[in-house]
Amino acid sequence: MTQGSQQEVEGSTLPGGFVSAVNLLLMPEDRFFKMAAGRLSFRNITALAPMVRVGTLPMRLLALDYGADVVYCEELIDIKMAQCHRVVNEVLHTVDFVAPDDRVVFRTCEKEKGRVVFQMGTADPDRALTVARLVEKDVAAVDVNMGCPKEYSTKGGMGAALLSDPDKIEAILRKLVSGVSIPVTCKIRILPSLEETIRLVQRIEKTGVTAVAVHGRLKEERQRHPLHCDYIQAVARAVSIPVIANGGSLDLVKTNADIEEFRRATGASSVMLARAAMWNPSVFASQGPLPVEGVMEEYLKYAIEFDNHAFNTKYCLCQMLRDKVESPLGKQLQAAQSSAEISAAYGLQEFYQQTQERLQTRRAALQSGSEPDRPVVDGDLTTMAVKFERREYPPQITPKMFLLEWSRKEKMEPPLYQMVQRSQDRGFQATVTVAGKKYRSSLWEKSKKFAEQAAAVVCLRVLEIPEGRVGEEESGLVCKRKRDGKTNGTAEQDSSKKQHLSAEKQQETQTPKTPVVANGDSRRADTIPEQL
Ligand SMILES: Cc1cc2nc3c(=O)[nH]c(=O)nc-3n(C[C@H](O)[C@H](O)[C@H](O)COP(=O)(O)O)c2cc1C
User: Fold this and answer.
1) Per the structure, how many domains does the chain have?
2) Residue 29: band (very low, low, confident or very high) from pLDDT cuts 50, 70, 90
3) How confident is the model at residue 382 (pLDDT cuts 50, 70, 90)?
4) For ligand 1, atom 7: residue with the closest CA
5) Which end of the chain has the least Cβ crowding within 10 Å, N or C?
């Protein structure tokens, strides 16, 4: 379907001009129109654009608070993301994607689920799919950056370099569309002629993407160059998927009312803002922008609550200060080297202190096991706060043993243990995989041995299998003599012992050698298997 103006078409479900003006007031019903069958439709939305360093969690949450419908994360490069491990951070209540060097590369949380778009930099369909699958259940959509003209992006064939390789664009987008269950979008710049631009976007549309964002500048043009609104308009007419107009921050969009004007001027379905939002994210609020001093405080509170990296926080606050960066506050901010010092510059020491104490209490509660020990299921991982207490089991009996015997009886693969160690206290945490599901204790143990036993206990308790504790009813999983601690004796017992040893050996060889990291708290992979 080709349409006159994307705005008119959407007007049939929600009158043009209505969305922005009452954004905050009508959010639930409003959002109903923006979702199709639980998926983001990208129609009639106002979005926070992807911005390297700016689009981290605090900025995204703040933009949502002020009224943005959708928020893009900063561009993250596929190679780096593909090395990350997904970790549920129980202290911050976030999901973290953690690199082998323990850096949190991408952090997200429940509040933005359903509205956060993951933007990747990629030039490789397979790698793009690997990354998309890694984040699929934590984000609302995945986007491919095809507009970044910076050398670090284009030299790897990514960003704007893709614009001259439409076959590659098609291959990446098709792979993603067929490989993930969430919407796929891309963000482009315009090509030298209108015909080429339209041809490219029509080709993109055919891949099955849900929407396309168009930054109305050529890849050679800088941000100060005038925007080609006519190109965005022509593209919006030529395709039926929603077009998201972008590039108007400097001249066209200064207030919230301007957003609607920009949408009208481009005939696009939606609008995406980068710099206007970076300078003051309250531009998304119906009365916005609000005084930036208050906005910076709100930003900093999110940064503190979500343990944002101090340098990233500082960078974003400097962008908001703009020409006031040489003011006394600006100088204090520039001198700050930690989140505590940044908080002090804004008079938020108390908030910082209280937040630290709250997080510390939570960390300690998780550690000591005072958290309720009910299972928490997250995808294929089940976690419980369990500590392995040696004295609760007869001398020869361990939960690992019971789990192994049970899997043998059920004719399943032997349990597989993976170990991580964190640097702060050298604590260990194990994850056991049984029948394709993972089980882990949220509590850290002092030894690898105990960590594996704790993981086994979690699995046994969740599956309601006897674990061999003293006083537990006889299950027959492990022979009585062993339960009673009698190890001397018959050839039969010897052979049973050998079986255990060979199972042990087998488990050793099956323990994966890949590094595992978690929680952003400096953990190192530890692949040395423990004894049963
Ligand atoms: C600090 C900064 C970082 C950016 N990083 C990205 C990025 O990661 N991915 C991307 O597609 N565009 C990026 N851009 C481009 C913006 O998303 C947007 O296309 C451009 O700024 C024009 O929109 P505006 O006029 O609203 O600023 C960035 C822009 C800025 C100012």
Assistant:
1) 3
2) very low
3) very high
4) 51
5) N
